[in-house]
Amino acid sequence: MNDERRIIAADDVPSDGTVLFTVRAGTETSEAILTRLGNGTVVAFENSCPHWTDVRLDKGSGAYVRNGELVCQKHGATFQRDSGYCDFGPCEGAVLSTFDVTVADGEVYLTDDEFSFEHLGESGDHDLSTGSRIDFTGS
Ligand code: FES
C-alpha cells in the first residue's frame, strides 16, 4: 500500500463515532468520515447530510452515533453505518456518498482512485463562524 494514502490506524477508528479527514480531487477538497463496523470493516462516507448538503455530520469531534446508526444532529436523520442508507428523517431513502477505503496490516488506506488523501481533520473550507444556515442578516 502507498504510504501517501494511509489515513489512520484501524484501531483508532471508533465504532461509536467517526473520524474526520479531508480528500482532494484536483483543486477541490472535500471532507469524509470513517467509522468502524462490528466486524472490523471500516467504511468512509462524505461528511454531508443529503437533506441539507451544507450540514456536516461530523463537525470535527465525531458524528453522533445512536443505536448503531449515524445521526444528523440538524433534523435527526439516521443513516445505516454499513451502507449510508437513510432509514429515518427528512431525507429518508437517500444514501450517503462513499469513498473506497481498505484496511491492510492494521492501517486504513484511501483506495478511491478519484481522490487523494490530504490530512486528518477538517478541510478548512467551511465557515466556522456560524452554526446555522441563516446568518444575522437573514440571508
Ligand atoms: S440537515 Fe441533516 S436531517 Fe436535515
TrEMBL record:
Rieske domain residues: 5-110
Alphabetical keyword list: 2Fe-2S, Iron, Iron-sulfur, Metal-binding
Pfam families: Rieske (PF00355)
Taxonomic superkingdom: Archaea
UniProt xrefs under CDD domains: Rieske
UniProt xrefs under Gene3D superfamilies: Rieske [2Fe-2S] iron-sulphur domain
Name under which the protein is recorded: Rieske 2Fe-2S domain-containing protein
